[in-house]
Records
---
Amino acid sequence: MTESASRPPLEALITEGRGGILLFGITPPKVSTSPADRDRIAGVTLQRLAPLDLDGLILYDIDDESDRVADDRPFPYLSTIDPAQYYAEHLGDWSKPVIVYRSVGKYDTHQLSDWLAGADPQRELGVFVGASSKDKRVRTTLREAHRLRSRHRPELTLGAVMITERHAGRGDEHLRMLAKQDAGCAFFVSQVVYDVDGTKSVLSDYIYACRERGLTPRPVIFTLAVCGSLKTLSFLQWLGIQVPGWLRNELTYADDPLPVSFQHCLHGAEDLAAFCRRLGIPYGFNVESVAIRRAEIEAAVELAGQLRPLLR
Amino acid sequence: MTESASRPPLEALITEGRGGILLFGITPPKVSTSPADRDRIAGVTLQRLAPLDLDGLILYDIDDESDRVADDRPFPYLSTIDPAQYYAEHLGDWSKPVIVYRSVGKYDTHQLSDWLAGADPQRELGVFVGASSKDKRVRTTLREAHRLRSRHRPELTLGAVMITERHAGRGDEHLRMLAKQDAGCAFFVSQVVYDVDGTKSVLSDYIYACRERGLTPRPVIFTLAVCGSLKTLSFLQWLGIQVPGWLRNELTYADDPLPVSFQHCLHGAEDLAAFCRRLGIPYGFNVESVAIRRAEIEAAVELAGQLRPLLR
């Protein structure tokens, strides 16, 4: 608690390029959830997270990505409450900032402008997410969304996503990061990292490109998620997350994959922390649970607790 | 020395599936080398290796692989002395076994049969290497070579190569290993390992396939090579060795890549040793220098010395 009090607020940790950031990512409840249950869920969540020394929450904006892959989605797609609405109506007890995700293609420019105008830059930050596939019809492109924010709400601290798996294929994720940085993004949040080696390659290409161009590297926040079942494993893979073959085997053959993935997440975080420190990249961690099983959520909270020491 | 004396000979370490094997890989001098220089080179080499607690030497059989890639070969291809001939004529002072590589496609079946007939199974082991590309014209196929050895010289302990990079593309390297094991191979020697994660995936697929089929895993010997210059780096890549992007950057931007690659080799070896121990795969290391620069050769010897403790 005292430690938390001595740290600058999230927005300053980001804009000053300090890093040392610990976040927890939350998916709002389904729209079918009753108002009473929404409050109850929010209360349980905040109670679970209270012992953690977090700098903020991430509130996801879930988009139907079934256009992206032909395979059946292991967990069904269900519309979830708008993250800003969930924050406004049910997270009043949360005293720290939130990072509101925006799958910008879901909204027209008026809706996005309205949200930008209403957001409180002292308590809210944003992350714009582009289309999940090239062919997806979007109402607003990522480029347009960046322009809207620069024009109407430049004081809102904005972040962007970093996707290791895109780099493995095309080798240009660091250039996308630079372009987003140029468009005003002050930090990056990774997709769930299971491919630590590939993530190091994105970071490496990014820092050398920054040095070449005389740019200051922006904080990179690594998202980690434990995997407690084969269904969660197939969901991670459905999401496009590259799980190294040997780890996929270990999770598949384990009596209980949860402790195996927990250790992998922790070791990966140590590896990434040491790597970022060596290269001078400010960094942080974001923990989420992609499944709603109680054991996986509790392990995610436990993981976040064990990550804080890596941020000093 | 006492430690070495208490270890069974190489052939027993392999056939009994014990592992704990340390080798050093040597490319014989070019055929243009004078007999006096051949002796001098052999003497210098053995003197350099004398302080190491090796279980044996690997003698490579260099093949012109220019069919495999269109890029210019960073170090020119020059015919080298036949490894068995180099052993017979110049390595008389070497008291431990040697593993003679055979790029089988270079030889007709009579030549291979002659070598098999003349090899001393107490002092010599073999590794058969297949064609470097699908389209290469060969005089003997790997399958034919395996058949020759089974028929004429089954008492000669035979090994096979393991190539991580093939697994990354096709995901079937563990099946090739099983097929080679079925054809009589008692151990595997990897191509130079820079992609540790990918190598762990081959090993993982291999051990789970062994368990499924009720087979005993055979020793896997990991080849490590330091990289002391950008020319060596491009040669490694020309050889088809996958160097992770972040490491390629570090080697490229380092004032001196040699200590960077040395540390990577050592950490990779520790990682692989822990992984093999956990999965119950007998293992060993083979160190080679792909360049002939003195600093790189000395670093290779130093590396081999530091690997012995990982084999206990």
---
Amino acid sequence: MQGLSCGTSRIVGCRFSIYPMADNFIDVIMKALKEVDARKVWMETDDISTCIRGRSEHVFDVAKAIFIHAAKTDVHVVFNGTFSVGCPGDSEGDSYMSENDERLNEYASSKVKVEVATQFALYPMNNPEYMQVIADQVEVAKAHGTFTKGVHYASRLDGDANAVFKTIEEAFVNASKTHERSHVTMTAAISANSPSKKHL
Amino acid sequence: MQGLSCGTSRIVGCRFSIYPMADNFIDVIMKALKEVDARKVWMETDDISTCIRGRSEHVFDVAKAIFIHAAKTDVHVVFNGTFSVGCPGDSEGDSYMSENDERLNEYASSKVKVEVATQFALYPMNNPEYMQVIADQVEVAKAHGTFTKGVHYASRLDGDANAVFKTIEEAFVNASKTHERSHVTMTAAISANSPSKKHL
């Protein structure tokens, strides 16, 4: 996919957490982080979440890789975060915008097969047509074959983690291009290895 | 606080998950649920999240109670969810709007002291003044004494869980009143008992 950032300074960010439902949650997170190459994003972790910022390709590449490497442990792990582009208050970390398109973690992530269940929601800000923007991206998800159904306040996706991340990245990038310098956010809760029966 | 719903049919919803970082995460969640009186909200749980809907008072009352009863186990527990009001697609569950103001879980929740660290973000939809709406509610959080600082894409609150929930409820209700039938969403990640050093 053509990146969102090409030729512009549209910095993309994601503030997310990885929640391993296990006593050894610190180990699961630390081990996953060690397997991820985050050199192409600005990254900061605090006691609540991690924030990564840079070109859209690398933000999605790194977010996906951290989740996938945590989820391949078979522990019940959830990625829960918000992607953002065009926030009027955003500025820091622009130096990462000169990185090239090559995704540093795509090869390793693509080798891991993890089934996930996802709920995501798009929030195109300051846009009277925002419900149409959302509806259009639900159609994109349907075309990807990952869309399962709408639920209150979100859309549900099911499938391989790589396919689901590809869907939400495309939905986010498309929504971000509907206006010049538009501000769009997207929440996503992505769950792997849940003992609960899937609500398909 | 005067509820958002009084005399109107402004149904409020919250789609959230409770993430206990422990092997016995199912027990922690099930035990917390048993301590909560959810009779005044529409409630549905799937394999990713729980959705509660009804009057704003009861949505915040129930969300807070589930989190607090899970967090009092001393397990590292996170509440992560999105509150919503005014979504044009929203309708089901209106019967719960006739409930009175009395919060069924407030007394029990107020007895529990749990320190939390929180990142929250408001998204007033379809509103050219949305950045001002957000800035105004940051001022409200400062007045509550729970505001710690702004971070990329969110505001940080610290303090007792009851005080933090009171802050985000007031911020959400205020933001929801800026326009007639306005559509506002709010994300919140609320963390208790984290072994990480607080980033104050």
